[in-house]
Specification:
The protein is an alpha/beta fold. Helices cover 40% and strands 15% of the residues. The structure holds ligand F0G.
Length: 435
Amino acid sequence: MTTILRRKKEHYKLRCFGCKALYDIDDYGKFYRCAKCGNLLEVKRDTFWLREDIDKTLLRYPEGVWRYFDLIPLWEESNIVTLGEGNTNLIDCKNLARVFGIKSLHVKFEGLNPTGSFKDRGMTAGVSKAVELGYKMVMCASTGNTSASLAAYSARANLQCIVLVPKGKIAMGKIAQAIAYGAKIYQVDGNFDDSLRMASKICEQNNKILLLNSLNPFRIEGQKTVAFEIVEQLGRTVPDVVVLPVGNGGNITAVWKGFSEIFEIGLESTVGRHIGERPPKLIGIQAEGAAPIAKAFKKGLRDSFEPVEDPHTEASAINIGSPVSWMKALAAIYESGGRSDSVTDDEIFAAQKLLASTEGIFVEPASAAPIAYISKVSRAREAFAKEFEELTNSNVVCICTGNGLKDPNALLKGMKPDQLETISAEESSLQKVLA
Ligand code: F0G
């Protein structure tokens, strides 16, 4: 095994997403961006090596993120920090497909991960790499889920964890998680974009703290596994369309990387045979008050975008005005032949209730954005004729990123349990209301 692992490291580089400059992969953390052009970095692998060796090495664990160990740039298995993340349910939503009038709709319920969101896929990889690189302290800025996830994995790895959250703008369930897992939490009197700017600056200046936001390419390496799982769970076939919420742009980057790798490196013996097929179109959905990617897409922009100065949505997880991975997110959308659109908060809350009441899947508001989009297209099918036609004839997967239990207040909107109908503790009163 040692020879395979040593060989493996030589086949990986960090590559600038912009100018394609290459860097030593294990130097990450000494810098976060390309020294030449300032762009974000990504993990780049020598695919020829993998093509030869993939059958021998892939699928090391039976299930979850680390099933794909050999596609994640971690050298020593002993450095893995895991809570058993991944292997989330892919739920066939026949009721909802019928409501929307589309052929097939599956929900990949990422709220079933150990801390209740898709972030755990990236954090198991990112924190394992932090351990491998020798860090004792990690940091992130967060709209809630990243902080909960980083705090949990740091606790398990015995790392000091610092999180910055925008004051008053994150769900209490997520704060409660970060407190329970023992993170040092600072509320920033500003928004998420301010918090990330501060965290990035501090980590750039202090080489002892590793930044674990999704600009960290090792997080993307863990998050991409959702694509492998979807294909395996669909009986080794590739969906036509994947719809997902977009905030900072990390997840859509990761999902695209995962699907692209299936085709680039030919994972025929593992996740299926896909000759003649193509990766899915990715549809990235934002909330109307925080939709810089959707706006850039509608203007046909690829190399620039306009940040939203004062973003606002009650879907707090995606309340982001200046997505750090905007360029990667736009590339994923264009390269996949997909698109980006926005939905209102009212549409998001209606979709959250619809998904729960028709399929028994309770997701947090941000995670209902893809459902809200399909609902909008289905309702206004004349205005969205082309989009509706495409969805009708497609195998559609929605990635529902977080669990509804994290943010019950968003759904209850101030409603208290004593506002529910109360009956006396006698059978007759139950009979009366049921009559
Ligand atoms: N859905 C949920 C539930 C999220 O928490 C996030 C991001 C997204 C979607 C968007 O993913 O940023 O990769 O485009 N939450 C981050 C956080 C920003 O701090 O928890 P993205």
